[in-house]
Design brief:
By secondary structure, the protein is an alpha/beta fold. Helix content is 42%, strand content 13%. The chain has one domain: TIM Barrel.
Length: 252
């Protein structure tokens, strides 16, 4: 791995080997999602809104989504293509690029080739690729056997990091994947403790971090949730201890 690739990954993954990503790209297929109606107040990393709404000074590293082309009202969310070039990602100074892969869907081959082609081009410029093991609307697929298959395939095709859903026996997913795994949030949970419990379990079972969106920015106290999750990831606290951090922040 060359210096540029290592440097970009180091912006995303801290010295302890762990990370906390905040995905806010839901608008590319869901439109004006609740709490993302004004993306400049949340920061949404697609190239249009990145240009229009994100301050160029003191901004955090960006993982730029580069796949899309479908919407919630369309026939199939899996029918994605590449929407942004690597040159555009470099122009926007992205630290990495993200792309969805829909294993088991009618568009599996297409999205796997999207990933392969993206990796080929990204490697040439030292840009890390994060593969997202998406399942469209069929969330019942989220078991260890299926997600383990998805993650291994994504790694085999060259992804440097894989984002996938938490599931029971999550260690089976991680152990079969030769690159770092981060946990996606999925649907919004009813309580903060539920979120913190699956984050803690996933970290204990080998994830390097999380990539949670709605369970943070749709929360009444998003700063408290970020602090609580960060404590689990970087300070190894329990879910109950993290929940106390959240409640304390919420009272402020």
């Amino acid at each position: 791995m060359d210096w540029g690739m290592k440097n970009r990954l180091s912006q995303l993954i801290k010295e302890d080997g762990k990370c906390l990503f905040l995905p806010i790209d839901h608008g590319y297929f869901q439109g004006p999602t609740t709490k993302l109606e004004k993306p400049g107040e949340t920061i949404k990393p697609t190239r249009g809104v990145l240009r229009a709404c994100v301050n160029t000074e003191n901004s955090l590293p960006i993982i730029l989504r580069v796949s899309g082309g479908t919407s919630m009202v369309g026939k199939d969310l899996a029918n994605e293509g590449l929407t942004t070039s690597i040159k555009e990602a470099i122009r926007l100074n992205a630290s990495a690029v993200g792309i969805s892969v829909f294993v088991g869907s009618d568009y599996e081959h297409q999205t796997r080739m999207n990933l392969s082609n993206l990796v080929n081009e990204a490697e040439e410029y030292g840009i890390p690729v994060m593969a997202v093991t998406a399942v469209g609307k069929e969330l019942e697929k989220r078991d260890a056997r299926y997600l383990g298959l998805c993650c291994r395939i994504a790694a085999e095709l060259g992804a440097k990091v894989v984002k996938t859903y938490w599931c029971e026996n999550f260690d089976k997913v991680v152990n079969g994947c030769p690159v770092p795994v981060v946990i996606a949030g999925g649907p919004k949970f009813d309580t903060e403790l539920e979120v913190l419990e699956f984050v803690h379990d996933g970290m204990k079972r080998g994830a390097i971090g999380v990539n949670l969106g709605r369970n943070i920015w749709q929360n009444p106290c998003p700063v408290g949730m970020i602090k609580a999750i960060r404590a689990i990831i970087h300070e190894n606290v329990s879910a109950k201890e993290a929940n106390k951090i959240y409640e304390s922040e919420k009272k402020k």
